[in-house]
């Protein structure tokens, strides 16, 4: 979980994961990317009560670098990897649902589910508030994926040259090489819409998205064995991609 100045939201994000600790032996790593607010104090308070939460603090270097630091600090016995941004919520049952897919389909590289956009979340239930605007879709989000640990190095590092859309670039590469991904109906994340979202910087975001797409095209031209990553948008299902389990 990369975190930069998210004192308002990170507590709820962590609690949404801790509430699913019965699904697996969780190791929740927060990478504090040089926050100048009380983010570190909020995390420390929760970590003091829950041994499953730990934090690495680094100077501010951007979200892609923070994610790579997280990957570099995975425990040796880690079997699965997923990401949750520090202002989002992991819905109840998400981990159990996706882990069941790995049990049913051995050899799965990763699962990929739905993203739910929401503008207001009830702090008690950690579900969309009554009257909240909610939109469920196939979209590009690290949180939509649960990766098998051995598959992650095959995809490679998260490209730190991306100021935005580092998830787009990584997911394109994952879909290009995978022969065993599973598209699920799982609601993987409640993505908060708020004034501080990086993706609201639409001009810069579009620039980096197009850069990720262009790189994907270049890779596939150079290597015809790579797949078209259209599954990330939910519009294509090739051989080796299981549909909506």
Q: Which properties best describe this structure?
A:
alpha/beta, 31% helix, 3-stranded parallel β-sheet, 9 strands, globular, 245 residues, 6-stranded mixed β-sheet, Spore Coat Polysaccharide Biosynthesis Protein SpsA, Chain A, 19% strand
Describe this structure in words.
The protein has seven helices and nine strands, in the order βαβαβαβαβββααβαβ. It is α/β, with parallel strands linked by helices and 245 residues long. It has one domain: Spore Coat Polysaccharide Biosynthesis Protein SpsA, Chain A, CATH 3.90.550.10. Strands 4, 5, 6, 7, 8 and 9 form a six-stranded mixed β-sheet that branches. A three-stranded parallel β-sheet has the order 1-2-3.
Give me a quick take on this structure.
This protein has helices spanning 10-18, 39-47, 63-72, 94-104, 151-155, 166-177, 202-222, and strands at residues 2-3, 28-33, 53-58, 80-81, 110-118, 134-137, 145-148, 181-192, 241-242. The chain has 245 residues and is of the alpha/beta class.
Number of strands: 9
Rounded to the nearest angstrom, the distance between the terminal CA atoms is 27 Å
Contiguous low-pLDDT stretches (5 residues minimum) are: 235-240
CATH architecture: Alpha-Beta Complex
Main β-sheet, in a few words? 6 strands, mixed
List the helices and strands and how they pair.
Layout (H helix, E strand, L loop, with lengths): L1 E2 L6 H9 L9 E6 L5 H9 L5 E6 L4 H10 L7 E2 L12 H11 L5 E9 L15 E4 L7 E4 L2 H5 L10 H12 L3 E12 L9 H21 L18 E2 L3
């Amino acid at each position: 979980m990369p975190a930069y100045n998210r004192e308002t939201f990170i507590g709820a994000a962590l609690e949404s994961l801790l509430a699913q600790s019965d699904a697996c032996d969780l190791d929740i790593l927060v990478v504090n990317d040089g926050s100048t607010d009380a983010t570190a104090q909020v995390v420390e308070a929760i970590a003091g009560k829950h041994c499953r939460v730990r934090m690495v603090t680094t100077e501010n270097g951007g979200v892609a670098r923070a994610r790579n630091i997280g990957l570099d600090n995975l425990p040796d016995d880690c079997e699965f990897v997923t990401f949750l941004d520090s202002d989002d919520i992991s819905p109840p049952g998400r981990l159990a649902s996706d882990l069941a897919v790995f049990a049913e389909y051995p050899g799965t590289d990763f699962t990929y589910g739905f993203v739910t956009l929401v503008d207001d979340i009830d702090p008690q239930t950690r579900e969309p508030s009554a009257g909240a605007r909610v939109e469920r879709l196939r979209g590009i989000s690290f949180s939509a994926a649960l990766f098998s640990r051995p598959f992650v190095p095959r995809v490679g590092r998260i490209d730190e040259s991306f100021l935005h859309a580092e998830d787009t670039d990584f997911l394109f590469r994952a879909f290009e090489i995978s022969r065993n991904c599973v598209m699920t109906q799982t609601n993987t994340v409640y993505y908060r819409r708020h004034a501080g979202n990086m993706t609201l910087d639409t001009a810069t975001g579009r620039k980096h998205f197009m850069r990720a797409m262009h790189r994907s095209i270049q890779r596939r031209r150079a290597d015809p064995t790579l797949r078209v990553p259209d599954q990330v948008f939910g519009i294509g299902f090739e051989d080796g991609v299981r549909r909506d389990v």
